[in-house]
Specification:
By secondary structure, the protein is of the alpha/beta class. The chain has a single domain, classed as Rossmann fold. Helices cover 49% and strands 15% of the residues. A hairpin with a 5-residue loop joins strand 5 and strand 6. The chain is globular, with a radius of gyration of 17 Å.
Length: 217
């Protein structure tokens, strides 16, 4: 089963993706993680991506999709997959459909996490990211056990793009780019389920699990 998670910055989709993937043994795919790993490992795709990032440019869709295609080669055919925050545009969605088809797969469910804008700004003010492995925590809703990453012991940092003014600009971009993507999927055999992510983490997790289970039925 292949599930796509969509939602604005700070809505908690990454947290929910990790929780579900860890509990059921699914593959959690974040293109940000793939990029960081490719750059760290010095792969050919990582070097190409680094060149764009060093120039201050967005990594092209074709390169992102090739990273996804390469990663899928190492995923068991029967394994469930959670795509976290990808695709971001209808162009990426069309490209992902082709990549999945090449692996004998398709998108089975799209889960959209919604929350009030001011709540998102508050959450992001409390967000911390691991400098080493990219794990994300929230000091309000899902804090680490200590002052370092629970996974690898790396330093936790407050990213510049999680500052309130920047967050509001990111929310505008999200609405402009991703809302058409949601409409794109809503026209495809009732793939889309919306979840109120403004509730406590456990309540959201239960609703999310139910949505995925319905998609697998």
């Amino acid at each position: 089963m292949v599930v796509i998670l969509l939602g604005p910055p700070g809505v908690g989709k990454g947290t929910q993706a990790v929780r579900l993937a860890d509990s059921v043994g699914w593959e959690h795919i974040s293109t940000g993680d793939l990029l960081r790993a490719a750059r760290r490992d010095g792969t050919e795709l990582g070097k190409k991506a680094q060149a764009y990032m060093d120039a201050g440019e967005l990594v092209p869709d074709a390169l992102i999709l090739e990273l996804v295609r390469e990663h899928l080669r190492g995923v068991a055919p029967e394994a469930g997959i959670l795509f976290d925050g990808f695709p971001r545009t209808t162009t990426q969605a069309d490209g992902l459909a082709l990549v999945l088809a090449g692996a004998g797969r398709r998108v089975d469910r799209v889960v959209v996490f919604d929350a009030d804008e001011e709540e998102l700004v508050r959450r992001l003010a409390g967000r911390r990211s691991c400098r080493d492995c990219g794990a994300v925590y929230n000091m309000h809703t899902s804090p680490p056990a200590g002052n370092v990453c629970d996974r690898c012991g790396g330093e936790l940092v407050h990213r510049p793009d999680d500052q309130p003014d920047t967050v509001r600009r990111r929310l505008v971009v999200y609405r402009e780019l991703t809302e058409p993507l949601i409409s794109h999927y809503e026209g495809m055999d009732s793939l889309v389920v919306r979840i109120d992510a403004g509730r406590p983490v456990e309540a959201v997790a239960e609703t999310f699990r139910q949505a995925v289970d319905r998609g697998a039925a």
